Amino acid sequence: MLNKYDQEIELLLKWYERAKEVTIKAESLDTFNKGYIQPLHEQRYSFDHFLRAVNYEKNSNGKTDDDKNVIKAIDSAIGHLQRAYSDSIEWILVSVKDEYDKILAQYTNDQIKDAFSEYYSEIRPSMEDITEIVNEYKINKSIEEVVDSDIISAEELQKLKKTTDQFLSIDVVNKLESYLKILHKKEASLIETKKRDKKESRKEKILIPILTAIVSGVIVALIVA
Amino acid sequence: MAEKKIIEQAYPSLNITQKTIDGILKRPSFFRGHVRTSIGRIYTTSEFKKRSDDVLGKSMP
Question: Which of A98, A103, A117, A92 is nearest to A39 (CA)?
Answer without folding.
Answer: A92
